[in-house]
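Example 3.2
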Amino acid sequence: MISSKPAHLQGVYDVVVAGGGPAGLGAALAAREAGAERVLVVDREKEAGGILLQCIHAGFGLHHFKEELTGPEYAGRVLREALEHGVDVLSDAYALDVLPDKRIKLMSAEHGVTLIEARAAVLSMGARERTRAAIRIPGARPAGVLTAGFAQRLVNLQGCLPGRRVAILGSGDIGLIMARRLTLEGVEVVGVFELMPYANGLNRNIVQCLRDFDIPLHLSTTVVQVHGRERVEKVTVAPVDDHLKPVLSKAWDVPCDTLLVSIGLIPENELSRQMNLRLDPVTNGPVVNSAMETSRDGVFACGNVVHIHDLVDFVSAEAGLAGRWAGLAAQGRRPPEDNVRLSAGENVGYCVPHSLSTEREHTVYLRVRKPMEQSVIRLSSSDGRFTVDKKVRYVFPAEMINLKVGPRMLQNFHGDALRIDVLPR
């Protein structure tokens, strides 16, 4: 992997980016292209590139690069572009704080604790996995209970198998991909157990990772007990009722030596909380306007730190928007004030950004709460006088909806709240 470290940290940076994954690198590149002269990316790993470095499977880049790439290929291409455009990358370092005057407190093995000046900042710290503790699975604490992402790192980067007979709790994309990856390495995957009545991964992963390998998917089922002293010996699983409560009378034991937990991601927002940014209670990420600017002027955010994305291509698109406006903000240029507020309505979990401007086109990202076929996305004003409908064949919680809205569509919502509902036709 390509790597770069600035020899010294002196002077004023136009834009400092916290996080060197695809979001941070994409934002840094966009800031340079927007005219920012000095751009610095700070990443805590020894090599920039983010989680993609351990995602050796193909399927990335179809939207952004118009070709299919592996995770390391995608990361390497984005990093190369950033370096070729003069972006400084400081790896093995942490952004500890962004002060009100936009000075950034950094810590690194090379420079120690350092304060650097910046005209704008971008937060792109990514996300972390939910663990067993987040859902309090009963039982002992034997070896062999891992998150799916950590297991992916063990297998793909360190060449270690987590076990020989594996059960997977949760049908998130990382868990589905690891079901296939472990099977290819000769591991027996006894099944994927999902609490909800539908899978939480992309349909292509359900097909390519489970059905193609005859790995059973048990919906409306969860793990209710982990057994074993030194090492996992078995797990007890049970179906759940309509209220998602386990029906213990129908429980059964599944012998295994490893349990992988794939129950979702959480935006990595300790830095955001430390900065007292306004956070969305649903996404757990910063509230952002249509320029991806947070509640603090000159501080922008993008990628999984704002909300969890399905595809890295969409992360790159969002990063381009945040980075561009961060680069312009560093030059004293501000985006037009937003004059339309967004709110999530029926069967909509959240929508990002949280406000729009009637002066330009936007992409609104949203997720539904439950699957629905033959539905309509309805945009309506607070008084119900103005509505815009868009028909869709189906909606699914695991697949984020990208809704394009432009000035003509928004003109009737000027100064009003725009509610988004997803309804049956």
